[in-house]
Design a protein that fits this description.
With 379 residues, the chain is mainly beta. The chain is built from no helices and 34 strands.
C-alpha cells in the first residue's frame, strides 16, 4: 500500500514550505511621502512573489493608518510610495472687531474637518498672511495688534506647542510681512508699505536680511507662493489711488536681487491669499475695489505669463489665508460681506473647479497666516 503525503502545490507554492519573511529597508522620508524597498527572501515557498500588501502607521501624526501601494517593481525589489497625512497650520488673526488671537491650530489637509488646537503664539496679533516655513519650522513674521509688533517666532509643525523666539524685524511701523513664502532653506516676504523684500534662513535664528526690491509698491494685502526654486508675489493695495495691483512678480529664492515681472492676475485685487504645489500656484479671493472676490486664479510657477481662471470660492472673501499639500489647497477664514468667517474650503490643485467646504476654524478670523509641511516649495 502506498504512502500519500498531505500537501501539494497550489498556485506554484508548496503548502508544506512557507516562505521566509522579506527584508524591509529603513524608510526614507520625503515631503508628504516615504520610500521603502522590500527584497524577496531567498526561500519564496517554491513559487514567485509578485507583490506585497503594506500598511503603515504615522506615529508622530496622530497614529493615523493609511494605505501604501506598490507602484513599481524591478527584479525582487518593490518601490513603495505612500501619502502621509499633511499638516497645515493656521496662526493668529483677529475677529475684525478688536479681539486679537494668539491661537495656533492645525488640520490634516488630506481629510476634511475642523481645526485642532496646536498651541499659542507669544503674542495675540494679526499676521496678515505673513507665515511661511518648511517641514520642521513654521515661522510667523511680525504683525499688528493696535500697533505693529516686530517679533518673529516659530514652531515645529509636527509637534504641538507654543511659539519660540526667532528674531526681530527692523523696528518701524511697517512690521507686517506680506505674501510670505518659503522653500526648504529660506523664508521670504515683502514688507508692508514698500517694495522691500527680506529673508531668513529657516534652520537658524536671527533677524532678517535684505533680499532686494519687489517690482511694485504694496501697501497691504498680497499673495505669496513658491516652488523649490522660485517665489511669486501677487496683487496688493497700491501706495495711493483706487487702482489695485494686478502684478505678479517673482524671485529666485536661493539668490538675492530684485523681483522680475511674471504677468498679471485675471482681476486686480488686494487681500488675496496664495499657496502652491511644486508646479502650480493659486491666488484665491481678495477685494476688487467694488466688492469681495470669489475668483481663484492659477499660474505655472516655472513659466511666466498671465494668470488663468481656476474656479470660484464658496463666496467672495479677502484677508484670509491658505496652505497646501502636493495635491490640495485649503483656504481658511477672511473678511466677507457682513463680517469675518470661520469657513475653510479646498480645491484639488492639479485640476480646475470650484471650492468645496472643508470644515471650520476655531473662531471667525481674518488677517491670519498659514503654512504646511508639504507645500510646493518643499517638494
Amino acid at each position: 500500500m502506498g504512502v500519500h503525503k498531505k500537501g501539494g502545490l497550489v498556485g506554484g507554492f508548496d503548502q508544506l514550505r512557507a516562505p521566509d519573511a522579506p527584508t524591509i529597508s529603513v524608510a526614507t522620508a520625503g515631503t508628504g511621502e516615504l520610500a521603502v524597498t522590500i527584497t524577496n527572501p531567498s526561500n519564496t515557498g517554491g513559487g514567485d512573489i509578485t507583490g506585497y500588501a503594506v500598511s503603515a502607521l504615522t506615529g508622530p501624526i496622530e497614529d493615523t493608518t493609511f494605505a501604501v501601494t506598490v507602484v513599481s517593481s524591478g527584479g525582487n525589489k518593490y518601490a513603495i510610495d505612500g501619502s502621509f497625512p499633511t499638516r497645515g497650520l493656521f496662526m493668529g488673526g483677529s475677529n475684525g472687531a478688536g479681539s486679537y488671537y494668539n491661537t495656533i491650530q492645525y488640520i490634516d489637509i488630506s481629510t476634511t474637518g475642523n481645526t485642532t488646537d496646536f498651541g499659542d503664539l507669544t503674542e495675540s496679533k494679526e499676521v496678515w498672511d505673513g507665515v511661511a516655513g518648511n517641514a520642521t519650522r513654521s515661522i510667523s513674521f511680525g504683525g499688528n495688534a493696535n500697533g505693529a509688533t516686530n517679533v518673529i517666532e516659530y514652531v515645529n509643525p509636527t509637534s504641538a506647542g507654543n511659539g519660540t523666539d526667532f528674531g526681530d524685524m527692523p523696528v518701524n511701523d511697517t512690521n507686517v510681512a506680506l505674501a510670505a513664502l518659503a522653500n526648504n532653506t529660506r523664508a521670504v516676504y515683502q514688507r508692508k508699505e514698500g517694495v522691500t523684500v527680506e529673508y531668513v534662513t529657516i534652520a537658524s535664528t536671527g533677524n532678517p536680511s535684505d533680499f532686494g526690491d519687489a517690482t511694485v509698491y504694496r501697501r497691504l494685502g498680497a499673495a505669496g507662493f513658491a516652488s523649490t526654486t522660485r517665489g511669486c508675489i501677487a496683487g496688493g493695495m497700491p501706495a495711493s489711488g483706487s487702482t489695485l495691483v494686478n502684478v505678479i512678480d517673482y524671485i529666485t529664492i536661493g539668490s538675492t536681487g530684485n523681483s522680475t515681472d511674471f504677468g498679471d492676475l485675471t482681476v486686480a485685487r488686494y487681500g488675496p491669499t496664495g499657496c502652491s504645489n511644486a508646479t502650480r500656484g493659486l491666488i484665491l479671493g481678495g477685494e476688487t475695489g467694488s466688492g469681495f472676490s470669489d475668483v481663484i486664479d492659477y499660474v505655472t510657477i516655472a513659466s511666466t505669463g498671465n494668470a488663468t481662471d481656476f474656479g470660484d470660492l464658496l463666496a467672495g472673501v479677502q484677508s484670509g489665508t491658505a496652505c497646501a499639500s502636493t495635491t490640495r489647497a485649503v483656504k481658511g477664514g477672511g473678511s466677507i460681506s457682513g463680517g469675518t468667517q470661520d469657513v475653510m474650503q479646498y480645491v484639488t490643485i492639479a485640476s480646475t473647479g470650484d471650492a468645496t467646504d472643508f470644515g471650520d476654524l476655531a473662531a471667525n478670523t481674518y488677517r491670519l497666516g498659514a503654512t504646511s509641511v508639504g507645500h510646493g516649495g518643499l517638494s
